[in-house]
């Protein structure tokens, strides 16, 4: 077995365990996470940001996104294709949506912009700002490109139960600047 194969298998096992923790947290979720996210975003009023349309058992950022939309541009990610970075299309709470890849809704009309803050979904996070995503590398490629242009704040949004002691990370994995959960805000 090669080192890459070993890491792929280790990441797959870490994702499986994290998905189980996330589902349990989703099924028993407590209120407060969206309010905590709104509080953090209030310190960045008017800064272009992107959230995401929650799928499956992801924690829901939509209330905080709707509040932020009253003050500036808010977008959602649109997958362009395998191996490509994400693009972000303007979103409003009342805007028309269509089905996008992986079951996430996207705006009916593409209106792309570059956000300076990304609210990032995840499968697991660690206490150093490490993030385990779904494995497609979309956010890693996207953050690398945005950060090459200007400072870009990556905020992981997750349940407390999604924290892992250690994650199998690679040099290409982009770190989070912050994680917001239903009980706390972690800054890295």
Describe the protein's architecture and organization.
- With 188 residues, the chain is of the alpha/beta class.
- The protein has one domain: Rossmann fold, CATH 3.40.50.
- It contains four helices and twelve strands; from the N terminus they run H-H-E-H-E-E-E-E-E-E-E-E-H-E-E-E.
- It is globular and about 45 Å long.
- The mean pLDDT is 92.
Pick out its properties:
alpha/beta; eight-stranded mixed β-sheet; 188 residues; two-stranded antiparallel sheet; Rossmann fold
> What does the overall shape look like?
globular
Gyration radius, in Å = 16 Å
Sheet having the most strands: 8 strands, mixed
CATH architecture descriptor name: 3-Layer(aba) Sandwich
Strand order of the largest sheet: 6-3-2-1-7-10-11-12
CATH class: Alpha Beta
Protein name: 5-formyltetrahydrofolate cyclo-ligase
EC number: 6.3.3.2
GO molecular function: 5-formyltetrahydrofolate cyclo-ligase activity; ATP binding; metal ion binding
Family: Belongs to the 5-formyltetrahydrofolate cyclo-ligase family.
């Amino acid at each position: 077995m090669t080192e890459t194969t070993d890491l792929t298998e280790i990441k797959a096992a870490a994702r499986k365990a994290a998905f189980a923790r996330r589902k349990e947290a989703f099924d028993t979720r407590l209120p407060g996470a969206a309010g905590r996210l709104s509080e953090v975003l209030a310190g960045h009023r008017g800064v272009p940001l992107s959230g995401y349309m929650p799928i499956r058992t992801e924690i829901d950022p939509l209330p905080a996104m709707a509040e932020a939309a009253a003050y500036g541009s808010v977008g959602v990610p649109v997958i362009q294709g395998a191996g490509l970075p994400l693009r972000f299309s303007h979103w409003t709470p009342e805007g028309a949506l269509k089905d996008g890849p992986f079951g996430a809704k996207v705006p009916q009309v593409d209106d792309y912009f570059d956000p300076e803050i990304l609210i990032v979904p995840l499968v697991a996070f660690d206490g150093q700002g490490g993030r385990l995503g779904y494995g497609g590398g979309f956010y890693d490629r996207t953050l690398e490109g945005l950060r090459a242009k200007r400072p870009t704040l990556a905020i992981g949004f997750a349940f407390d139960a999604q924290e892992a002691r250690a994650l199998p990370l690679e040099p290409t994995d982009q770190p989070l600047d912050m994680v917001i959960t239903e009980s706390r805000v972690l800054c890295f």
